[in-house]
Amino acid sequence: IEVRFDTTGDANEFGQRIGLRQGVQTSTYSLESKIPAPVVITTAATGKIERSGLIEGNFTKNQSVFNTAPRAIVPSPVAQTEAVSITGADANDEYSVVINGRTFKSSAAATTSEDKRNDLITQINDADDLGVHAVAGRSIGEMHLVADTAGTPFTLSVSGNADNAGSINTETLAKNQISQSKPLNLNDLTINGIKIRATTNLDDQTTASPAASSDQSASALAIAAAINSNSAETGVRAQANPVVIKGSPATTSLPAIDTTDNQDFYDLYVNGTKVSVQFVQNEDPRTRADKVVKALNQVSHLTGVAATNNGGGVSLESDGRNVSLWFDSSRPDVSAASFGLDQGGATAQVSKIKLSGTSATTTEEYGIRINGTYVHATVAATAAETADALAAAIQSAIDDGTLTNIAVSTNNGEIEISSTVPGSPFTLDGATVRDATGAGTFPDDYDVAEGEIAMDLSTVAEKSNGSNVVTAIFNASETSTSARTAYGTVRLISDPALLPKLPSPIGAPPSDQLDELKATGRPFTIQVGDNGFVDAGNFSELGFQEGTFGGRSSEDMDPPRVGRLAFQVGSSANQYITIDLADFGKAGSITGELTGDIDKNVEDRNTRINTREGASSVLRILDDAMDKVNATRATMGAVMNRLEHVITNLSNVSTNLSASRSQIEDADYAQASTELAKTQIMQQAATAVLAQANTSQQTVLKLLGG
Predict the structure, then answer these.
(1) Which of 133, 130, 136 is nearest to 85 (CA)?
(2) What pLDDT does residue 54 have?
(3) What does residue 99 show for φ and ψ, rounded to 5 degrees?
(4) Which of 73, 225, 488, 599 is buried most, with the most CB atoms less than 10 Å from its CB?
(5) First-to-final CA distance of the chain
(6) Of 579 and 283, more confident
(7) CB burial readout 21-49, b (16+ within 10 A) else e
């Protein structure tokens, strides 16, 4: 069991309070049970277990186990964004912008800074194969150059030939950043001295998401597959832990549904699959959560994500795949909380528009773009009055539904725009001034004017997703790529060999996977590879920690407490009689339906006899349980009969073997004594006859010799 503390944490005090003692690890504290009992960690009714660094689960199994630390949510890649600002220009000035080696020059017909900016924007956007697009920026005369593909950089240089005080400058607004997903690289990890290979996309062929932050080769499934490819050498197998998301109870007062029946459908996207949920105004949060759960589980075969109702909120658990979630933030008042998936900490974006300087002609119109929509107003006598007029135009767009999820206010020439839904961002750019004497729509068909009021756009507070995995995306669809992604962790296991290998079914093909995944139960060692701590290494980012892990708990089996007994009943290796023990625990297959809710509060239990229907249901459950008990007894009785038959047969064999051995090895003493006496008499008689014959031969020889 592993727990991480901040600099103010006290491991010993914490361990004493929960009955655990401190072990020795680097940067963390390994906790071992001080009493001969299982260690089970669960989440309390209030609070967040992840703040302590603990992981929910039952840690009583006789295994050597290591869980990688939780991984950070991966944001989407960042598109390189450069600001090019032209100031004080006139007709005699010429400016050049070089992007990826291609040069764009401002036209001599463009007489103002804004004119020259707009001329360059048009030229750049006409180059479809450039990989960069241009938009009007934060001030009149500024344009923003944005990479078409996040994570793909571009080069930029500018130059100008100014006859007066005109100038052209650049500023990097956002550096190019590729996806921060972290795959397992070669030389990142070694287990028991064995180098683990790098992961590839082929290691995870189930994760499918358009999100640019979701990388198949960095998923928990891919990392587990790479580790398991070396299990034969390491004696350690790996399994992907699910991504777990626990949302708080749903907010049903928002969105304010503008329909006669106070209900409408809203979309949630899971790994690129759209899930539509019907919201009803002010419905019970548990009802809303049930709807979301049902909708998500109908497509779980596509997404790999299963949902449950956690009491008004929604909990998600993947099968090891990455999880990317998003919704359409263009719809009014919709948030992660609307789906019961809010995890807290989201903050709102706040931006400002500052107008300053002398008044201009009343035919000029000042405009900005919010979420791609232009809003403009005619200039007033002062900068403050012009700000009020522009703010009124923004408010009008909010009132008629053109702009959603933002609020606007003014203060002496400054306009403040803020998100009304924390975590939902908006874009603010396109600072433009036009002469309103011409016909047409703003800004394209208006003549360019030299604005005398300066306008600057800025963001004073970036939005934050907080702890939420769910991403708010403006005008989202199934193919949106800018969602964040949550990655699962990996569990490394070395199991003890509790039973001999049982025979495979007759006719079953041989399998080499069993040998490859055979684990030892001994402690195993995790070490960083040669490149694990270099800039390109991902050892720590993937949640691994150096050390030796393993041990034996007081319990050999993890609930449900069931197992297989194997009896050797013959002389050959495959002569077994086995029996699988049934689970009579609270959540077991025999009595679980009756006792599964024993730990819940009385009012939350499903099995109760406080009503007539409940009593009838309990009787039915009891009948089913008794039938299962009888079936289990019958199975055990049949196995016992087989064992008794084997015992009887083996006893007869043993008796016959003993009789045979007795006949072979035991002697009849009387018969043997008689045979011995007989043999001795015959031997003595033969000796006497031979002696007599020898005497006769000597007499004859004497007679012949005379």
Answers:
(1) 136
(2) 61
(3) -120, 120
(4) 488
(5) 120
(6) 283
(7) ebbeeeebbbbebeeeeebebeeeeeeee
